[in-house]
Design a protein that fits this description.
Helices cover 45% and strands 21% of the residues. The chain is an alpha/beta fold. The protein folds into two domains: 2-254, Alpha-Beta Barrel (TIM Barrel); 303-376, Orthogonal Bundle (Arc Repressor Mutant, subunit A). The strands form three sheets. Strands 7-8-6-5-4-3-2-1-9 form a nine-stranded mixed sheet, with helices on both faces. It has a three-stranded antiparallel sheet with strand order 10-11-12, with no helix packed on it. Strands 13-15-14 form a three-stranded antiparallel sheet. Helix 3 (102-110) links the parallel strand 3 and strand 4. Helix 1 packs parallel to helix 2 (69-86) and helix 2 (69-86) runs parallel beside helix 3. The radius of gyration is 21 Å and the shape is globular. It binds iron/sulfur cluster. Iron/sulfur cluster binds at residues 13, 16-17, 20, 22, 24, 61-63, 96, 119.
Length: 381
């Protein structure tokens, strides 16, 4: 019996934000129910086929709370039954501030959902407009108030820094507004310009000007300092929590533990193999309806590749690579695989390595992408 984190992808949004490269669409009405049916069917098939115990559930997207009423109940009734039967330790649903009404929240609570992750992104009306988000700043507090009234134990707010036009003042304002709402978890991500997105094209055309790298680094440092002062503990490059607020589902991911992904574009990682479902609602629904596999990509990793990924993911956490834990999980000694990378980055003050663990320093977290890529492919063993 293996423990998994279950991820369910609901690929619908009311509008498509200009920076977004997640697989999501603005659906027509006839797309919605067949997709919900297909999700329920794929979930039932996976649970029947696999000898698994679900430890955490995360329903993301897209915007899961785009679904309402009977269709939301249809999806969450089996998830709630699963949560009860498996005794899941955390059940998160992503939501947008504009999509949270009392009926929706009641349906989620009845299904054992105990954590809402809200895409607040910014408390500045101009920045939300630049991101092409559909909500207004005041809807964030209204949403949080409804979440509290409905009795959810945990709340995350996502914020974005490095938005074109953002200033140190407006970023501090967003951080402070978020803190005032007292979520037990905050995630702060730098804006990225993903190829193929309208935001990327606007940057190339010169109609938006990216925040200079040094300024972006200062925004990040401001977030770490401000949130630390407010009682949040940084436990991953972008994630901060108050006591009891760590996201268990994401911690599973950073420890490279098995994941079962359900839905279009969802990724599973089971028994060392990664497989991805087709990123297209119509093709996904057709595959499930006709009993064929929705998988379009599959890769089984060698034990060395798994060790490289595990190291790279664990280094994202502030705790870093626990040498003993790493040896147990992968069968390799981190020194044997990464001696050169550890030496190079430690000598520049970007990571620390002692008998117990290897971890990025504060300075290293600012330059994480460049460092982590040196751990993906271990030295030949
Ligand atoms: S709401 Fe989220 S998933 Fe949907 S388009 Fe915007 S960023 Fe992407």
């Amino acid at each position: 019996m293996s423990d998994v984190g279950l991820y369910v992808h609901v690929p619908f949004c009311s509008i498509k934000c200009g920076y977004c490269d997640f697989y999501s669409i603005v659906p027509v009405a006839s797309d919605i129910e067949p997709l919900v049916d297909a999700l329920c069917r794929e979930l039932a098939q996976c649970l029947k086929a696999g000898n698994i115990r679900v430890e955490t559930i995360f329903v993301g997207g897209g915007t899961p709370t785009f679904l309402t009423g009977a269709l939301l109940e249809k999806l969450f009734a089996p998830l709630g039954a699963l949560a009860r039967a498996h005794g899941v330790t955390e059940f998160t649903v992503e939501a947008n501030p504009g999509s949270l009404n009392e009926d929706t929240l009641q349906i989620l609570r009845a299904a054992e959902v105990d954590r809402i992750s809200m895409g607040a992104q910014s408390f500045d009306v101009g920045e939300l407009k630049t991101l092409e988000r559909s909500h207004r700043p005041e809807q964030i507090a209204t949403g949080v108030e409804r979440i509290r009234r409905a009795g959810f134990a945990h709340l995350n707010l996502d914020l974005i820094f490095g938005i074109p036009g953002q200033t140190p003042h407006s970023w501090r304002h967003s951080l402070n507004q978020a803190i005032t709402l007292e979520p037990d978890h905050l995630a702060c991500y730098g804006l990225t310009y993903e190829p193929g997105t309208p935001m990327h094209a606007r940057r190339d055309q010169g109609s938006v000007e990216p925040v200079p790298e040094k300024q972006e680094a200062r925004f990040y440092t401001t977030a770490v300092e401000t949130l630390t002062r407010a009682g949040y503990v940084q436990y991953e490059i972008s994630n901060f929590a108050r006591p009891g607020g760590l996201c268990r589902h994401n911690l599973r991911y950073w420890h490279n533990l098995p994941t079962l992904g359900v839905g279009p574009a969802a990724v599973s990682y089971l028994e060392g193999c990664r497989r991805r479902n087709v990123p297209d609602v119509a093709s996904y629904v057709r595959a499930i309806q006709t009993g064929t596999s929705p998988t379009v990509e599959q890769e089984c990793l060698s034990s060395l590749q798994r060790a490289g990924e595990t190291a790279m993911l664990m280094l994202r956490t502030v705790e870093g690579i626990d040498r003993e834990h790493f040896r147990e999980a992968t069968g390799f000694d981190p020194n044997a695989l990464f001696a050169q990378a550890i030496h190079d980055h430690a000598s520049q003050g970007l990571l620390t390595a002692d008998d117990r663990r290897i971890a990025l320093t504060d300075k290293g977290r600012l330059l994480a992408d460049g460092i982590l890529s040196d751990f993906v492919v271990p030295a030949p063993h």
